[in-house]
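Quick one: sequence plus flavin-adenine dinucleotide SMILES, need structure tokens.
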Amino acid sequence: MSIARLAARSLRSAAPRSAVARSLSSRPGVTMFSEEENMVRDMAASWCEQELKPHVRAMDTKGEMQPEIVKSLFDNGLMGMEIPEQFGGSGMNFTSACIAIEEIAKVDPSFAILVDIQNTLTNNAIRFWGSQELQDEWLPRLATDCASSFCLSEAGSGSDAFAMQTKADLSADGSHYTINGTKLWISNSSEAGVFLVFANADLSKGYKGITAFVIDAKTEGISLGRKERKLGLRASSTRPVTFENVKVDAKNVLGEVGQGYKYAIEILNEGRIGIGAQQLGIAKGAFNATMPYLFERKQFGTRIGDFQMMQQQYSQLATEIHAVETMMYNACRMKEAGVPFIKEASMVKLYSSQVAEKVASKCIEFCGGVGFTEDLMVEKFYRDCKVGSIYEGTSNIQLQTIAKLISKEY
Ligand SMILES: Cc1cc2nc3c(=O)[nH]c(=O)nc-3n(C[C@H](O)[C@H](O)[C@H](O)COP(=O)(O)OP(=O)(O)OC[C@H]3O[C@@H](n4cnc5c(N)ncnc54)[C@H](O)[C@@H]3O)c2cc1C
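Reply:
Sure thing.
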């Protein structure tokens, strides 16, 4: 008799039939959502349809976001998903944030990265490690009107992020720090009202000097460099941010001095699931933009979606999309359950970016010549997905993390 049957038999003998049925059915699939989570999905999808979709192509072409659409994200609670209601946030869970990111990425991955960084990196870092004073000051704003950037990378420190050269010097009286250095490729820096900045407060201690600061973007000495001209995510601002003798009160240190490297690692572990949500949204967005075409377009007197070779390919893609969805929401549930999820988060980041790229590329092929033009959105998804294998840890870095954790298991 199988172990499952044995378990079922012993359960039945110990509990009435209805209780067994309840306990056996009490674990929903990871892609089955609560009523609240489904409401978030419906709300985000309808927001995208009405507020975002009509403007996506124009914003991509112009290379900037319309401020009123960013404001609308706040008005609809999408920028403070996990911020508690007492601070004006939506008081939802991590899964809900990822659902929102996925839905938005289906329509515009640039907006998805804005929502992703806000919810999975900045808001959560301040919630987890910010003093009461920092939380009182920033959480209500982050939930209602203040976008944010996560400032870690520098010209000489990308994958090797902790080799950063940005310095934070403590004043003699211990009241403030002076920050000098330049951060590179900072997403959402045009829109941000606050920066979460990693700087080394004691270079002699190496990475153990790294300290995180919450800095008002209007602080004197901060300047933004030229917008990067990018392959994709063109509406998303990516700019260098320079700190020149920027004076920051010591109370703006996030958590403890010298713990910044730990906070960066921990928050990026979670952030990788958010990038997985973005990549899943991209894959689904490309697929959804393509499939109707396959059943409209006829060649040789047959709908192209009915050719067996086409069927094989889109069935394969749909299967891989489902695999990403399952992995990503499983990682969400693991995080929420408080069990280790670092390996799974890296796997999600790695695999979701591979699948998004494959799906977007194949979808262009499925649409033939028109897929290569701006008539369909597929070419944009193809451009937008590429960075998924680069930011928040390149694919090699994810493989390294996965390998490290696997080697500990044997
Ligand atoms: C559009 C965009 C938005 C971004 N937004 C932000 C942001 O908001 N905030 C922020 O801080 N940063 C941001 N970044 C920076 C991003 O996180 C870095 O680009 C990324 O971490 C890679 O660093 P790098 O570009 O210096 O590449 P490198 O680290 O120089 O890597 C180059 C290549 O070498 C490989 N490599 C490096 N080290 C190893 C190793 N040990 N083993 C094997 N292979 C290795 C990499 O996998 C990669 O293929 C953004 C980047 C882009 C493109």
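Residues 1-8 have pLDDT under 50 and may be disordered. Strands lie at 147-151, 167-170, 176-187, 192-200, 210-216, 222-224, 238-249, 253-254, 298-299, 302-303.
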